[in-house]
Design a protein that fits this description.
Mean pLDDT of chain A: 89
Oligomer: heterodimer
Radius of gyration of chain A: 20 Å
Helix content of chain B: 10-25%
Strand order of the largest sheet of chain A: 1-2-3
Low-confidence stretches of chain B: none
Number of domains of chain A: 1
Number of helices of chain B: 2
CATH architecture of chain A: Orthogonal Bundle
Largest sheet of chain A: 3 strands, antiparallel
Largest sheet of chain B: 4 strands, mixed
Shape of chain A: globular
Structural class of chain A: alpha+beta
Helix content of chain A: 40-55%
Number of domains of chain B: 1
Strand content of chain A: 5-15%
Order of helices and strands of chain B: EHEEEEHE
Mean pLDDT of chain B: 87
Number of strands of chain B: 6
Strand order of the largest sheet of chain B: 1-4-3-2
Number of strands of chain A: 8
Distance between the termini of chain B: 30 Å
CATH class of chain A: Mainly Alpha
């Protein structure tokens, strides 16, 4: 056996975007074992939601769980609260929620792709991807009023309507984005140096993804067809607006890039379909009921399955709120997928997981 | 959501009989305080359209030790470690300190009596 070295990375490190800590045991440059610690930012949000805030205010609090997938949190919470007060949301509100979720997915996937490029040593592609991402941030601001942490979904519906000129602007900006996306797809798919760095790196098999209960693009890149948008229809009608499952098979960093890029084409189609078929209904269902009983909701955030559990007790304040973020489901696989890789591939592999510790630790 | 009541003695056999990794996806564990007891929950969903969420649950005394399901669901160690820290409950072969720093308040999600 070669001499073993232990190399720590994080919680603060130049190649980490989140406060993760990994301890790699290596033989020469090859990783043979990984220990992970992912919690440095516990903020007690669940406790605050069950003690300091009324249930209608909680949707604004959970919007602060994450800056990247804020709309997923506010929508999932609103849906679980709507189950507890037993109301049906107007169809226009459902469509607008899906529109913002897909715009959010575009900016989140492009952010992840840019960081994979950066951590693979391709600075120019990082800058190009971030430049192309900017339009989605501007559109989110136009629709929701904020570039991040949009208080768009509220209990009963949505807080703002889509103005016709904003809808027109979305259609025009998406048309301009399609050739840019084609260009990105060509580079991420065919660039020789990027392929050398990304193909085979951090790979997991479909069986491992199943065994470790992986979710999101991480699972779909390994061939595991798991996507909440494909599994539920009652709360948000994804199939009605053109949802399509995207999977790859190799399960490596390269496949995760390709899954995210292909999903952007689906997101564009969904957004166009939503705008072209936006129902004319009210934006919100009013109720004076208090939450009672318990309910769960699953929603496909950019990183995978987001899960909310809530229990009400017929008062303004919830008895219990539980949030399970997508990265939480991927922690076990994140630690395993390093094994057998070169230490030099670690930054790109971590970026390709697209971890969000702000969500995970809450 | 389909809720299935179990006991600490039958928990592992109940979950082993239910869980097929090609059909089911383990999501998370949760705990809710119910008077002086704690309801511990294990959530699963299907790989299917339309998917159903299944919740196994059991009521325990706070000091009771809960069996680990790591040997049935490999990735469950993350959920077990989180619950031990946040709810201050005992789970077999699960140490504190994964979610919270050692000097952090124990069980911060428990209700203050």
């Amino acid at each position: 056996m070669a001499k073993q070295y232990e190399i720590p990375i994080g919680a603060q490190h130049i190649s980490l975007l989140e406060p993760l800590h990994f301890k790699f045991t290596t033989e020469n440059e090859k990783i043979v074992k990984t220990d992970a610690n992912v919690y440095y930012v516990h903020r007690g949000i669940e406790q605050a939601c069950c003690s300091k805030f009324k249930f209608r205010q909680v949707s604004f609090v959970v919007g602060r769980v994450c800056g990247l997938c804020s709309i997923s949190h506010t929508t999932a919470y609103s849906q679980v609260a709507e189950k507890l007060v037993k109301i049906e949301v107007p169809k226009r509100a459902k469509y607008l929620r899906m529109l913002v979720i897909e715009l959010d997915r575009i900016h989140s996937h492009l952010l992840c792709l840019s960081h994979v490029a950066e951590n693979s040593g391709f600075e120019a592609l990082f800058m190009k991807t971030m430049q192309y991402r900017e339009f989605s941030m501007e559109l989110l601001e136009a629709v929701c009023g904020n570039r991040i942490q949009y208080d768009f979904s509220i209990v009963g519906g949505v807080a703002r309507d889509l103005k016709p000129q904003v809808a027109q602007s979305i259609i025009e900006r998406l048309k301009k984005f399609v050739p840019q996306l084609d260009e990105l797809m060509d580079i991420y798919k065919n660039n020789w140096t990027l392929s050398l760095k990304n193909k085979g790196a951090g790979a997991i098999t479909k069986e491992d993804a199943m065994r470790l209960n992986v979710v999101g693009p991480f699972a779909r890149a390994a061939g595991l067809a798991v996507d909440v948008r494909n599994e539920t229809e009652d709360l948000l009608p994804w199939k009605e607006v053109g949802y399509e499952m995207i999977t790859e098979t190799s399960g490596d960093v390269y496949a995760r890039n390709i899954v995210r890029l292909r999903e952007l084409y689906v997101s564009i189609r969904i957004i166009e379909n939503i705008i072209n078929g936006l129902p004319e209904t009210p934006l919100i269902t009013e109720t004076k009921a208090f939450p009672d009983g318990e309910a769960t909701v699953r929603l496909e955030a950019p990183r995978g399955e987001l899960f909310y559990y809530a229990k009400g007790n017929k008062t303004q304040v919830l008895e219990r709120l539980k949030i399970k973020a997508p990265t939480f489901s991927n922690v076990a696989a994140m630690a395993e997928a390093f094994t057998g890789n070169e230490y030099g591939s670690v930054p790109a592999i971590i970026a390709s997981y697209d971890p969000c510790l702000s969500c995970t630790a809450r | 959501m389909k809720k299935i009541e179990t006991t600490l003695t039958s928990l592992k056999s109940d979950i082993a009989a239910f869980y097929k990794q090609e059909l089911h996806h383990f999501m998370v564990m949760n705990a809710v305080e119910v008077a002086d007891k704690i309801e511990v929950q294990w959530f699963f969903s299907d790989y299917a359209y339309l998917c159903e969420t299944t919740c196994f649950f059991t009521l325990i005394d706070p000091a009771e030790k809960i069996p680990s399901i790591k040997d049935i669901v490999v990735s469950a160690w993350v959920a077990e470690a989180e619950l031990v820290d946040l709810m201050n409950i005992n789970i077999e072969n699960t140490a504190k300190g994964f979610v919270l720093e050692p000097d952090f308040e124990s069980g911060p999600l428990r209700k203050k009596k």
